[in-house]
Write a structure and sequence with these properties.
The protein is an alpha+beta fold. The protein has one domain. Helices cover 18% and strands 33% of the residues. The strands form 2 sheets. An 8-stranded antiparallel beta sheet has the order 1-2-9-6-11-5-4-3, covered by helices on one side. Strand 3 and strand 4 form a beta hairpin. It is globular. The two termini are 29 Å apart.
Length: 236
């Protein structure tokens, strides 16, 4: 299913983070939107703090195929040793900005509880219209304790109180602000797969939220996966 000879490039994010962009990732990319269409009634609203839209869990067998792509093209760049466990979903970004939870008004990161583990994130664009938005990365402009407090407040505070405290509107992250510097946007492209370090602050690029739709054939459909990996014991 995955292309054995894709086009691969590595991009620096900053602070030691990187992402790997793989074009022509699937040999038959139309199959996943067709699968999403066939099972569209099985999409479920994601918890607001987890994902701003609907999702459909993917079979483990498919995600295991993604492991091979990761090992071949991205494992070394992200400092991972081997995949310990993983999970993936088809995701439809649908939430209007006014309904976003605080956790999605700021860039997010994914961390592991064990020091010898890391999280690798994968996102595969399965829509034709690049105006629906790609993936953007940020670096914090504030100290680590301030970042921790902001993340805590995003989970704990009511949306209105969070917006007032941090002067952040109800919108998808867009550009730099007092808290984060925008450093990289990977444009959306049909059949483009992006692997990146989960510890890198990231957010969907949504320049036209009014164009978000709940239709798998015309909406912002992506395959998203999290791969929890052991870290390299020594640098490559």
């Amino acid at each position: 299913m995955f292309n054995p000879r894709p086009v691969v490039q590595q991009l620096a994010i900053g602070h030691g983070h990187a992402c790997v962009v793989i074009d022509d990732a699937l040999l038959a990319p139309d199959r996943l939107p067709a699968y999403a269409e066939a099972y569209r009634e099985d999409f479920q609203p994601a918890p607001a703090s987890v994902f701003p839209g609907a999702q459909l869990r993917m079979p483990e067998e498919f995600i295991h195929l993604l492991h091979d792509v990761f090992r071949e093209h991205a494992r070394r760049a992200l400092g991972a040793r081997r995949v310990l466990f993983s999970a993936g979903r088809l995701s439809l970004l649908t939430s209007p900005p006014a309904t976003l939870s605080p956790a999605h008004r700021m860039p997010r990161r994914v961390r592991t509880f064990e020091a010898d583990q890391c999280a690798a994130m994968a996102e595969l664009f399965l829509f034709q219209d690049p105006a629906l938005g790609g993936l953007q990365f940020f670096l914090p402009r504030i100290s680590p304790p301030q970042v921790e407090l902001m993340e805590h407040d995003a989970d704990a505070l009511p949306p209105e109180e969070f917006s007032q405290r941090y002067i952040l509107p109800a919108s998808y992250p867009d550009g730099s602000n007092a808290w984060f510097t925008h450093v990289l946007t990977v444009p959306a492209k049909w059949n483009r797969l992006v692997f990146h370090d989960g510890a890198a602050f990231h957010a969907p690029a949504v320049p036209h939220p009014g164009q978000l739709r709940a239709d798998p054939r015309s909406g912002r459909l992506t395959l998203q996966a999290t791969l929890i990996c052991s870290r390299n014991r020594v640098a490559w």
